[in-house]
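Students often ask why we bother predicting the structure of a whole assembly rather than each chain alone. The short answer is interfaces. A chain on its own may look different once its partners are present, and contacts between molecules only exist in the joint model. In this exercise we take two input lines together and write out one structure for the complete complex. Read the inputs first and try to guess which parts will touch.
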Amino acid sequence: MLRYTVLRILGAIPTLLLVIALAFLMVHAAPGGPFDDERALPADVEANIAAAYHLDEPLPQQFLRYMSGLLQGDLGPSYRYRDYTVGELIGTAFPYSLKLGAMAMALALLLGVSAGTVAALRQGTALDKVVMGFSMTGISIPVFVIAPVLVLFLAVKLQWLPAGWSSATGMSRYLLPVITLALPQIAYIARLTRASMIDVLGRDFIRTAHAQGLGTATVVRVHALKPAMLPVLSYMGPAIAAILTGSVVVEEIFGIPGLGQFFVRGALNRDYTLVLGIVVFYASLIVLLNLLVDILYGAIDPRVRYR
Amino acid sequence: MKMLRTLWLTLILAVVAACGGADEAAGPPNTLERGISSDPETLDQHRSRSIQAADVIRDLGEGLVGYSATGELIPAAAQSWEVSEDGLKYTFHLRDGLRWSNGDALTASHFVAGMRRLVDPSTAAFYAEMLGDLENAAGITSGEIPVSMLGVAAPDERTVVLRLVQQTPYLVSLMTHPSTFPIHPGSIAEHGDSFARPGKLVSNGAYRLEAWVPGSVISLRRNEYYWNNAGTAIDAVNYHVIVQDSAELNRYRAGELHTTSTVPPDSFAQVREEYGEQLHVAPYLGVYYYGYNLTRPPFKDNAPLRQALSMAVDREQLALRVTGRGEAPAYSWVPGGVNNYEPPLSSFAALSKEEREQVARRLYKEAGYSAENPLKIEVRYNTNDTNKKIAVAIQSMWREVLGVEATLINEEFQVLLANMRDAEITQVFRSSWMGDYNDAHTFLSVLQSGSATNMPRYENEEFDALMALAADQVDPEQRKLYLEEAERVMLADYPLIPIYFFVSKHLVSPQIEGWGDNVLDYHYSQQLSFKAVQ
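Now the answer. The structure tokens for the assembled complex follow.
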């Protein structure tokens, strides 16, 4: 087990290196630099700035400088946020993104599974049609449309919730962003649950359970829910990915100081170190999560270890 | 199925964790909520350069001189100043008892330290050129002369003396620019370049920095040590960073903002109807233009062709129907409303639309183009709705009037900048110029030979000579004439197509008093106040 874990960790290093090298090349290959502006700089000033940020060095040397910093856990200074290091920015931004994502995911599962189950139990009724109609709409409308519509009704017209994250404190400021981010996932999970639940409810062991005299609620809760959850579980991966990418849009619309916003702005501003830092961070996170899953598999299924 | 339970448990824990945690406290009741379109790069006045950074720094710091709400120069840290007869020596007298936000005394030497840091090559300041006319400034920035040789001195605690190498009639207005603000030497010694961070920044303006959450909000609080603290009405200011203009409008609608940084183009007509007097539109020191690449054919040495294309652009249509936010059609390079300057207009400004088109067609033909042999050019602009609409409109104007086949290429901003600067593949490009101070020089100097900001690569000895004459001129009237003549010479060469002059656009809540419209678009928070509740 230990050997397997160590091998897997060692195996992840080349992957990370490759990702970093590619990302480094790509950000530097994009035309323009971090300090270009309509207001071009006089040659002297420009030379001083390039020297201050080591941008006057040849690319391989810059790469070595970056890698040696990285090995010491230093992601470098941000070019755009000149008072902050990339490490600090990621450190303050990630918790906001995590909070947003975790709440959206929880809401999606809670509402999605409940709605799907109810629809399956009332299959063919008006309620089923309403739930499925709603979920079809939820799937088809993109986040950047949902957000302004929600803001218009709940924040501008009714004034129940803040339109912007920084205009309130506490939980109320997360509600609109979380709902926006969760809606498409609620819809998708509801459809998945409904289909899977209908399938499970038709199986023999459910009939047996009913025959034993159990009520519908107990049958669903104790017997049907677990097997019906399998497709939803395997949808978790894509759902997390969707929430990560969706958060880029949501963070910008609501002004949440999360990672997604920094990633997009960093790329547009040619903030080389910030973009690279976030890539390194996400890549490490994904590699780490994959590793965890693999190790878990190894723990559950002994055959994996000897592969 | 243990996994399922684990999953639920994890999620519940995540939510519980998410709900906890301390949140920032809201400001006092008397808090001004302002929209700002991007984060400042830094609140260090020397290492920042964006308009947004300058807006916040003007609340935090204070120069020798300031502006009133309507844009007139007013005494700030200096209560008076005088200029020597040859115009090369400026003496500023500081107010008595000036203090920093931590209570330290603010002396003339802190202004000297600030200006030295600005031109010091190791600071790598974007605006190092701002004080380029001070003695030895250029040599210091290029690293040849030590910083201590800069032409600025503090003969006593309350006097700042600037020595110039040439006439700079707009020098006093430069003293309003954040890059000339003083620095607190103790903070630099203690924190180095990170002195401007929350918790460290010591400021000398009406406000001090309370907090900054990058990507979200910058919070300022009243500086009790400010000399005019008694005259400052608002206790706290929050600058909310809102990148999308439509999101900003929604937050204004929801009552979360007192002032906005702009108004979205698409909603402009609706906003005007809905908000009436809350909408403030005012001329702004900025010009939107199309530049020609003068280093390559077809525009190199081809003034008639350049003139034909310029004349075929119907600026009234563009300003009225395409942008439609009160922009003024541009027939000159320097906008109207600049101090002591009457911009000369292009020769065709007085002609009717039909007459212009006639002349344009004749010039186009003279340049050797016709229906059979049309001019084929590429127009580059950075991706943005307004830019696109304008490009499409100009493309069709050129096609209808002249038969030009223009291809529109939209590029990401940084790509366009790189292409403009290389001047290799560009033919026609979209750009704009915003004035740094209220003087024609901030516009005309752009087009001097060799200027880094001279994107068309315009070179004209006569223009350069007139600019040099103006620079040596003590008499403001004579200087004005030279500058106007320089612009006239330049306009007759058609190195670019000025299209319209920008306007500033803000929504200002009816609760707010003291807002003034001005060409610089400066709106100091200390000049605003809440209306008394009736």
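Check your guess against this: Chain B touches chain A through 77 residues (CB under 8 Å).
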